[in-house]
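Notes from the pairing session

We agreed to fold both candidates in a single pass and log them together. This is the raw record for the first candidate, unedited. Please don't reformat it; downstream parsing expects exactly this layout.

Candidate A
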Amino acid sequence: MMQALDIISQRQSLVFRHDFRARMLLLDIDLTGLPCGKKCEDAAKGYQAEAGIRWGRQMGRVIAAPYEEIVIDRLYPGNLHLTKVLRPLVEDLEKTLNLLNLDEEKKKRTIIRMDAGGGSTDEVNWLLGRGYQIHGKDVSAARAEGFVPLVKHWISDPKHPYRQMGWAEGEIDGYVRPVKRLILRWPPMKEENRKKKPFHYACLLSTLEPEEVVRQLNLPAHTIKNKDAVTLAYSTLYDKRGGTVEVEIKESKQGIGIHKRSKKRFAAQQMVMLLGSLAHNIIVWSRRWLTADAPRFAKYGALRIVRDLFHISGLLEFNGTGGELLRITLNKAAPLVREIASTLARLLAGTGVEVKVGAT
């Protein structure tokens, strides 16, 4: 099934047509919980997102951020964290992207973006040793707080009024390649906690040059001349992972229900997961096909596409002898039927299949 998904993706996915010379490829990595019964194979107690601490498994996902496509999904026991599965996940990612001829030069043009769960020194060095660019948080908040004396200039984030950030200056030990450190701080939510500890801290690690950060965010070229704007850009590029991998996981749960189908056998759950990956990508690809004639669908998420578009009823008419599809009649009572009909007619042009709107 994994091989089949690789072949299908190679034919349809935009990530396999990515132009590394024009722009780096941004990949998001994250884990999400898939709750299941405690008697299920490889089930373990762990953090299951909105379900809290309960029995389940973990799904590791790699998203190609510019295209919103799943590159790979992998299933793991429920008590593992990203730091434990990052290496096998990236190794499986490399096997899939071998179809893309992911050589050393292309690895230098590939950004791995992840949260603090994968930000241990060992895991970061492992990624750096394989030639990747990284953009993610250090796992240790205490270490981030220790870098505070190295920050000479703090700026406020206009999008998050209580958050401040500044660059930690000086020598950086412990990493096999040069890494930039952006320290973030913000006050606790409860006022009584601020007396005990005025700020929470995090450290953003990045190997990216300012020019690439500005390019990834599609900012004007002159932004590079404003040091504070560049600092904010580094933070914004990390924050945008919430709009890619976290949103895509949420859409898979809402639109496809990947967290609702639990199988006792681990291999069976893997098959259900991979079918969900295929369904997710088909929704993403179909949205791209549909928006060529109906731009309004570009803002539709997986839930709306499945509910409002894929559930339009209709009638299929086949050739009685050869079994070939001759005609598609879509239910004229559906609110979006005419836009869908015109798009289908364009997609099927040249196949001899007639698309019309009528009573079904």
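Candidate B (folded immediately after A)
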Amino acid sequence: MTETKYTMESIKCFIIEKTGCDYEEVTANCDIIYDLGCYGDDLSELIYQYKEKYNVNLENYLWYFHTEEEGHLNLSIGRAFFKPPYERVKHIPLTPALLLDSANEGKWLVAYPEHSLPRRRYDIVINQVVILVFIIFFIFKCAK
């Protein structure tokens, strides 16, 4: 049996410090993304600091099961044609209880379901092509 090194209180205080949420909002089974509003880059930073503070091996952590990306990618043209990774899988809540259990085990405990993603992010490729076309159009327009 694994020795318990950390407590729920420790994890709750860590989450409160990183998110600015009130103590009452952070419960063992709240979803840090949907209930506390921490996602995208803010969640990535929280997870990185969690890894460092609690010495958790996150080798098998897959962000797209837990959170979406920051806002500007959610409004992209490429997304109209190709789903981003987080829309291709079922959301798995990221909870303080999960963080606590993983911290006490020293490794990420989520067993992700079978899934496949394209080798490339075609939604992003389309966005880059659209931006390039606008830049080229602007250069030619200004050159006249």
